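hey so u asked for the seq, here:
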Amino acid sequence: MTTQNLLVELFVEELPPKALKKLGDAFAGVLFEQLKAQGLASADVSVVTAYASPRRLAAHVTHVWRKAADKAVQQKLMPVSVGLDASGKATPALLKKLQALGADVSDPAAAVAALKRAPDGKAEALFYDSLVTGAALDTGLQKALEEAIAKLPIPKVMSYQLETDCALPGWSSVNFVRPAHGLVALHGSTVVPITALGLKAGNTTQGHRFEAKVSPVVIQDADAYAQTLLGDGAVIASFNDRRFAIVQQLAQAAERLGPGYEVLMDEDLLSEVTGLVEHPNVLVCEFEAQFLDVPQECLILTMKANQKYFPLVDAKGKLTNKFLVVSNISPDDASAVIQGNERVVRPRLADAKFFFDQDRKKTLASRVAGLDKVVYHNKLGSQGERVARVSRIATEIGMMLAVEGDSTIAMHAQRAAELAKTDLVTDMVGEFPELQGIMGRYYALNDGLPADIADAIEDHYKPRFSGDELPRNQVGVIVALADKLETLAGMFGIGNLPTGDKDPFALRRHALGVIRMLVEKDLPLSLHRLLAVATRPFVEQFCGGAFVPVQLMPPDADENYLQALNKHFGVANSTGQELVGFIYDRLAGSLREQGYSPQEVEAVLALHPQRLGDVAKRLAAVRAFAALPEAPALAAANKRIANILKKAQDVDAHVSEVLLKEAAEIALYAAMKDVAPRAKAQFEAGDYTASLQTLAALRAPVDAFFDGVMVNADEMDLRLNRQGLLKSLHDAMNRVADLSRLAA
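ran it, structure tokens below
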């Protein structure tokens, strides 16, 4: 049976440009999968090509059969005990089932003889062999097209009336992302008689609205689709080809301007513009140089977000007053198009300049009071109250990081935190929310504030996403930590935790940001202490808690503070440890993504190391230890020791040499007196790898101890002394990581 290539096109009104690529791929992909499922196309030889332009979705599939091959099918009917009576004749139930399947039951005996009997679990069953006729292309393609339309990733459809029913309002309507006006279905050069959205398939479509040579455009053959659309319709049907053409034209336009110009490329903008034009034509435009006095981020955002223009920068990345427009028409004289785009962008840039000039008339400090009128959260108060909390947290972190009592960094962190949100009440950020932080930095510099404070105002939102850069200076790191920790503490305090894939306050991202700063900046900060510092302002605000100097906080302050908040806000079943666990869970996931094994991660994080900057060194030490020949035996022994101590409970790590009776325990104690102090010194010096490798020397005496010593001796003093020996050993072995987690 020979095959021919298939072309299906749905011609519609302008599709959403940001979703066009996804719509095109989904349309072609589902159509192809459905054709393969029906045996009309083959996974081995058939190839699908997706097409998507602003006004069409199409798919070209090679090697499609006009009719699928017939297929032998075996169906289970029923157990033999149900289908045949005691004499082996067909029961009425069996005959009815066969008749429903289209089998000839005029001779019941012959019908039974044609069946197969085979074991099916504990019973024997009857099976019916039949030959299913392969699907015809028109039937199969109809089903495939309906499935492709139904499964398009359309967040919201629109209802519209069919053109044939315009005289009968409300009589017949369809739902689709945009009104559809044409359907092409060609198998080779033959039209496949299918329908969709009230349309009948043909071989004609429409080209470019203004530049098509003919209307309608006749597609003679499935393989001529893209070439015919380009030649007669002035449409580049392929999304990828159109995107490539735009990239080429942008580069060529910049090159013609000279070596001092580069296109500020944006992948999202490029995809959106590709979804807006059918035959791109890149033109060079410019605006008045006076607008370059406005921060370039404002101008770039205006051009990209509002006008879909591509800014041009110089070799140093500084914005120029020229930009590129991707037009959908190619007139002989493009001056009118160029002037029109320049005229359209000018008011936008003028607005940006006006906002910038007006905002600079007021200092950031004068805007602090305005934050009291901006709601942050109905339970946690205004942005002004939030800023006060962040400022407190930033000040205390700054004091924790102060060198030799120098409080300058704490003072700068406090000031930056106080001003970090003030640009939210400026005209520029009100118009362009994406510029928050960025404009704060410009206005801080305009107010004469130090550079590190200005940079911190911009950087305190960082890292904003995976792979984003960290704040550029220590003041920025402190304020960013304070901002994220305040969010985490507040949301956990009111019980607003992420669930499943829902995380409206981006708490997972905030936790990962805290982790990255603590790890990559190797900050000498305790995680528990940070969480206590972050939670305390809430307790003081809502629970009347007294101020406690950070140095005097108990180790479990974070848990106590969170419990107090949970109680105040009526959050039930909270242990106060959820936030700690949440952060360590995020850290564990991040470490696994970096290539560490679950056992390595679990061994290190089981100890809840407080200085996260040490985690990488601990993991490296664990990996090196696991490669030693002594590691499996020591890990297994460590697991055994942990179980013994767990059952014994409250064991004191004290050993009396007088009570050491057996040779093996005497030898183990002697080995520990030699090895443990060296390992501890190496641990305290931060050489975790050497510390674990030193402990490997204990393998032989540990093995001998468990082979020759009864830990739970009948004599109480011997038993307690041996448990104390094991407790000392356990403490010495598990400073870097919980080695029992490495046991098989």
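The first strand starts at residue 3 and ends at 12. The mean pLDDT is 91.
lmk if thats what u needed
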